[in-house]
Amino acid sequence: MNRTEALITGFPGFLGSALLKRVLARGDAPVACLVQPQYLETARQRAQEIIAGIDRVDGDAVRLYEGDITEPDLGLGDESLEDVRELYHLAAVYDLAVDRDLAEAVNVRGTEHVLEFADDRDVDRFHYVSTCYVSGRYDGVFTEDHLQEGQTFNNHYEETKYRAEVAVQNRMDAGLPTTIYRPAIVVGDSQTGETNKYDGPYYLLRLLLAQPEWLSVTFTLPGSSDAELNVVPRDYVVDAIAYLSAREETVGEVYQLCDPTPLPIPRFVDVLAEAAGHRTVTLPTTKPIARTVSSRLSSSLPLESATLDYLDHPTRYACPKTLQALERSGLEVPAFESYVDRLVAYVLENPAVGDEPMV
């Protein structure tokens, strides 16, 4: 029997890699990581780098297992992993333009398979990384107490993550000791700017960078001035998960890892432009026109039409439970203005990073 302190899905992904480092640093080892076969070599290299950066952690601290959450029993085969104390489920398709079938297979059925695995192994704790955007286009303030509100959704990503969280909450209500974490839009590390995927707000930045510094065109939609773009850096998200997951009183709770004071869309774009050193002119337009233009220019400019839905997003996010739980931790969301320069610098220094999700 292979005993392990924790199992992480979603390694060597952006959040999974950072969370593995935090879990090992606090002494929870060995940690098993479920890795899709095509990412096994990347996972080996990343695990070695993480282990090398932590004192008193040996090479056996991370154990990689080939598998896939879209398969029953996670595709583990003979690697039964019967004795798992904690399970961190991060694996998902993070892509606003994902097609329905892929989102269904990974985000919904994959989560159901992970829940079955956790239930069969009688794990002590189940940690699920959801998203604030299970809100869909909820018109109002969405808190940790909200979920099934009759909302509509911007895309298949939101809808399938919503359905996955409904399944997790149902299992939590039935007795599975669970904690749910809902990050807002996750951007790069606030200290280094590092990211592994240029999507979401990065489309706005890359659109600016593709234009002349002396005059770059941005656009605004009728609802943009009342909308907020809620972003959080990776380090805040994984630090908060590491802190909350180590505490017994967080069992049965939902925590929104969002910015309690986010920037309105026009100010967010201005801050990006200032950090990039671009002078801008803003053109008011409608969403259908903006969608048509972005579709026609997508081959020459870094645009994703699915991003447009977040420029008039009606939902505001609040996180009272998270703020209370983190009160003595020293953790808080840094102001976007305090680290935007690092995000921009990273994009400029790493132009080869793409926008494709790990699937």
Automatic annotation (TrEMBL):
One of its GO terms (biological process) is long-chain fatty-acyl-CoA metabolic process. The keyword Transcription does not apply. Keywords: Plasmid. The lineage of its organism: Archaea, Methanobacteriati, Methanobacteriota, Stenosarchaea group, Halobacteria. It holds the Pfam family NAD_binding_4. This is Male sterility domain protein. The keyword Transcription regulation does not apply. GO terms for molecular function: alcohol-forming very long-chain fatty acyl-CoA reductase activity. SUPFAM superfamilies: NAD(P)-binding Rossmann-fold domains. Residues 8-241 form the Thioester reductase (TE) domain. InterPro entries: FAR (IPR026055), FAR_NAD-bd (IPR013120), NAD(P)-bd_dom_sf (IPR036291).
